[in-house]
Write a structure and sequence with these properties.
Structural class: alpha+beta
Oligomer: single chain
Order of helices and strands: HHEEEHEEEHEHH
Strand content: 5-15%
Length: about 300
């Protein structure tokens, strides 16, 4: 900060006139915007800027405006030029000039008629791709909040031509990308709720059918095991029937008891769990209903 500003802030009379209380004037260390010759700049002494000019990513040698291109008008709104690293003078007291920069500026709304917005903001292609020589709006700040009293629509592919007059041959999607460039997780397609619901319902029904198949098999097997446990043979002594095998009876009773008390009960419990799962997650009245009641996608 220049010496004269420091003296003003440090003086006794500066309590109200230079310390900013109650929205009064405030002296603080701020860089001077490096204005291009064709730009019109409206600057507030506390770091808020409105710049009207041509496409410019950073210094005056960047963007389509630096190439002499036509139809690349730009509106740049910056709050906090240079961000936390902003300086007004160097160590020798000479005035410093600062270029706009998406990396360092605290908050910025960038609107351009023709721009390479992804390159300017350091974004990766994702599934949507990189916008080259396209009209664009870029927003960046520590926190962005989009609040609607009624509804918000994120819509793509609505027009037949782009801002340059070229035919739009494909519909581009929407990438919801947390940690772009920092998180290694790959982008994956969103699922569609109703189709997913139908799929899960069919899976639950198939599992339920399988439960019935196993239950039917168990009943048949129990009948067979019972018959086998008490079966007899014809003896060589005039063909009289023998007594049932003691070992077979004991083993049969043990097997039948286990099949009924464990396997059959487990199958009934499994069937009940399927009913509860379907009711909780696949029914619109369930607490864990998997479909959003408010948000939709195609």
């Amino acid at each position: 900060m220049p010496k004269n500003k420091k003296e003003q802030v440090g003086s006794d009379t500066a309590v109200y006139s230079h310390k900013g209380y109650a929205q009064t004037n405030l002296n603080e260390e701020l860089p001077t915007y490096n204005r291009g010759e064709s730009e019109k700049v409206t600057a507030h002494p506390n770091g808020a800027l409105i710049v009207l000019g041509r496409d410019r990513a950073a210094d005056v040698s960047t963007g389509y405006g630096a190439k002499g291109d036509i139809k690349c008008a730009r509106i740049d709104l910056i709050a906090g030029l240079g961000g936390y690293s902003a300086k007004e003078t160097n160590n020798s007291g000479a005035e410093l000039y600062s270029d706009p920069n998406f990396l360092t500026d605290a908050s910025r709304l960038y609107m351009s008629q023709t721009s390479d917005i992804d390159d300017i903001m350091g974004l990766k292609a994702g599934t949507v791709g990189l916008a080259k020589r396209r009209s664009a709006i870029g927003l960046k700040a520590d926190g962005l909040r989009f609040v609607a009293r009624e509804g918000i629509k994120l819509v793509t592919g609505i027009d037949a031509k782009d801002s340059q007059g070229n035919d739009i041959s494909k519909v581009s999607g929407i990438d919801l990308w947390a940690g772009c460039g920092r998180v290694k997780d790959k982008l994956e397609p969103l699922v569609k709720g109703k189709i997913t619901l139908e799929c899960l319902e069919e899976i639950v029904e198939a599992i339920n059918d399988l439960n019935g198949i196993v239950s039917g098999f168990l009943s048949s097997q129990m009948e067979y095991n019972k018959t086998l446990a008490y079966h007899t043979h014809n003896s060589p002594f005039f063909g009289y029937l023998t007594t049932p095998s003691v070992d077979a009876i004991q083993g049969g009773i043990k097997c039948l008891t286990r099949q009924y008390s464990k396997t059959n009960v487990s199958l009934m419990s499994h069937k009940q769990n399927l009913v509860q799962l379907s009711s909780a997650y696949l029914n619109s009245h369930g607490e864990g209903y998997i479909l959003s009641r408010y948000n939709n996608t195609n």
